[in-house]
Amino acid sequence: MTLGISDRRYRRRRQGRLVIALVRWVFVLLVAIFAGYYAYDFGLELARKEVRVLETKMYQTSLTLEQLKTDIVGLETALRAERALVAKWRDHYESEVPGAEDKELLIKIHQRIKKGVSRKRISEIITLAQKRDVCEPLQVTRRFVVQNPVYAGPNDNVSFADKSILVTAIGKSKINNRGRPEAWFDPAKKVVVYFTKPGGETTSAEGVLPLHHAVVVGDKEYRFSIVSGMRSFVEISGRKCDYP
Question: CA quadruple 123, 127, 128, 130: dihedral positive or negative?
Fold first, then answer.
């Protein structure tokens, strides 16, 4: 009988231990489930916060982009306005400020005024200027010797317009193979041609031949062309035109 009682006690103890172990496992499982749920909920909330932050940043970025687009449109409008203003002033400048040819003409007008030609006379000349030149060739082509550092002798001038225009020239001596200057000028180098009127008024043309120059005498303008001729000589021809 004692053995039966002991056996029942043993089974009860064993069952108690099993129940306790089962309760522990259930508790651990519940804790794990709770921890997992809490972690999931915490992670989900964290993800939601990050999403909200990203959405806020995206919204702010979109606002910034819209502002940039507005600024760009404004800058493009301002740039177009500035370009239009620049074009307007450029057109105004080109229409008001004289070009190179006009400047040269104005310089010549001022030079004539300084030499005593009245503004009234210049105005009359401009008014009488013709669209087409009325010219006739000079009847003769003349030649003369170009003076140089070695030679300054006769035949060094010619005249036109009943001796109203005296033409002379100065050049540089031709250098021979021995490096010595010859008695004639070098047509490959610059020449200065002088046109002198009665009273001493002188104008000139300078450069490598051929050269061109015009001289006014009364109501005629003599337009000369000077080219290289035989050794030591240049030849001069031209036209006589109505002036102005």
Answer: positive
